[in-house]
């Protein structure tokens, strides 16, 4: 214990006591006895000197004074030894406690804080602090402080060789200064000196933190007054520094161990994931192989991959252009926003894409699974195209034979049609279709015709009909179902083909035809009728539309191959003729007279020799049978022609 910190334990008396009385000395006792009592009481060093002063004041013999002097010196040595032992005991206890903290290390900052606190307490300094080296920046920085009050000082960064700490970190040797600002052994800087001055430090002792031969930091003890640090204190600070270095090394090892364990855990997770992914890949491979073998389609492949990848997969012919082209060029699935796109291609032809929806985080193995599915899809599409093209050729050959009349055997014709899921005994319509888009080059026109033939063949296959390329366009033989009409079928076909080829397609239809196996020549005649109707549509500017001969009124007679006069008369005035036949009325004759008299009821009644009211009643009945617009110019023209044809076709006796 320092002499400056020890206060006298002796009470002061108003009257001086003798040396024997003040110590309780028994007369005749040895000179050591009073000093032993002081040692036992733990008296201050001043108390030992007081005994000599009292003995001299009492006039004790010189021999007695000499004996007391010798005993005093011996007692002070014993006292010093006892203090040293108590100090070493405290130091060893602190070191033991620090080692215990280190053995149970849980929080590095807590251990370093304890080391700094104990160093400050045992050395009796105002401040203690610890800095660590930063290899990346090449300097050392404050890590832990105890007793510091200045924020700037707590945030100091010290370059190698700068300040006392930088010198210790650079040389790996302890350095002590009893007056920091007067010491020229190290390089002073404005930032460091400002921090030290703001903290008010004067005397500083710094020892290195060593791991092997490498300095990792510095441990400091400092006072705000001039002070000389003893060798034992420097050694004690060095012991704490060694423990701090061991704590840091242990913490680093623990961190590395935890990191290694975490890496191993992640590796195990990756292995488990990879194992699962590989199993999924094997599963999808087996599923795709099974799909191909049993003749599955494109959507079956998409469904199988969607189940394996746990997402939504669809085949599409349209996908974001940039992503699709990138996938096609690289041969890999590419990410587009939250989706993955795998091009479905065969050679240089792009057939479409498989799109995995809403699955941004895709494993590489799953990515290859999607790519493999795209390849299988392309093979299925090629196989389906080859089969479709073969079927289209067969359908085209049968329709060509019907148009050319090469096969006259009804049984063989029916068998060939049945193999194509067509029924030649059903009522059919022959349709002539042609592209009516803008003029293009020969190559583009040929490609457009191929697209039209392909679309027509597909439509014929889905409608149980036939299709063939002919005369720069396409001819279709489609069944007429239920209440459908040739006109409705023509318009619907024009719309469907135009949508498929993205160009205007004009379609002319024949009148319904029957019993094609028995009378195959009917197909050729119906085709010619459909072509004439197609030409009429184009001449009338109705490109991209569809119509049948019946839509053109009496003009249809000119277009029809067989000149269906009876059918025209029936469609135009049939209800009036039937009414006369059933009721015995004379509406047809009234109509003839009405038109012959310039549509004048007064002149009509003179011609028929009836009352004008009778004419009005008959015309009202005609309106109910033919419709309110029967007197419009277009309807009136057709009705007059139908009346003329009806009169000409009637027996001469009638």
Automatic annotation (TrEMBL):
Q: Which Pfam families match?
A: GAF (PF01590), GGDEF_2 (PF17853), HTH_30 (PF13556)
Q: Where is the composition biased (Polar residues)?
A: 15-25
Report the residue ranges that make up the GAF domain in this protein: 107-258
Residue ranges of the region described as Disordered: 1-31
* Entry's family note: Belongs to the CdaR family.
This protein is called what?
Answer: GAF domain-containing protein
Which organism encodes this protein? Answer: Streptomyces cinnabarinus
